[in-house]
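can u do me a favor
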């Protein structure tokens, strides 16, 4: 599909990846009424994690912020897989970001800004959302970051 959102992605030099296949018993995204809920998206690039480890130890906050951008791109790909055209997005409602954190790392909001900023760059005002940024001990596959997104669709 080619619409305004796809044109904006191209303008930013971004390409949506293929949907990351589920690692367990779930769907990458589901529609319920006027909403799409994505599963947690890892920073997978071409089928593998770009980096592994804890943020604030093996992974820097700046690296993790870039990984959160990748998670957001993967989330948009998951949304597109169930709605076809990203122009159907009325708005991003909520973003939840998980950061596998070293015990003394407290910069989770800055890391998840990577996802939030990408959604704003791509969707403009429709990308402004509520958000949680949570530090956790470990994520699947030793991923540093995981992001899930909820979007409302137009009528």
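np, heres the sequence
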């Amino acid at each position: 599909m080619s619409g305004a959102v796809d044109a904006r992605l191209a303008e930013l030099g971004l390409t949506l990846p293929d949907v990351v296949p589920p690692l367990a018993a779930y769907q990458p995204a589901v529609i319920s009424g006027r909403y799409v809920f994505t599963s947690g998206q890892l920073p997978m690039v071409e089928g593998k994690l770009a980096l592994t480890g804890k943020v604030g130890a093996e992974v820097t906050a700046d690296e993790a912020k870039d990984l959160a951008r990748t998670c957001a791109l993967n989330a948009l790909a998951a949304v597109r897989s169930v709605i076809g055209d990203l122009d159907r997005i009325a708005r991003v409602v909520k973003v939840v970001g998980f950061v596998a954190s070293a015990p003394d790392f407290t910069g989770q909001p800055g890391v998840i800004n990577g996802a939030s900023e990408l959604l704003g760059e791509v969707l403009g005002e429709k990308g402004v959302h509520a958000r949680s940024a949570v530090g956790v001990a470990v994520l699947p596959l030793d991923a540093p970051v995981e992001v899930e997104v909820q979007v409302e669709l137009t009528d």
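The first strand starts at residue 29 and ends at 32. hope that helps!!
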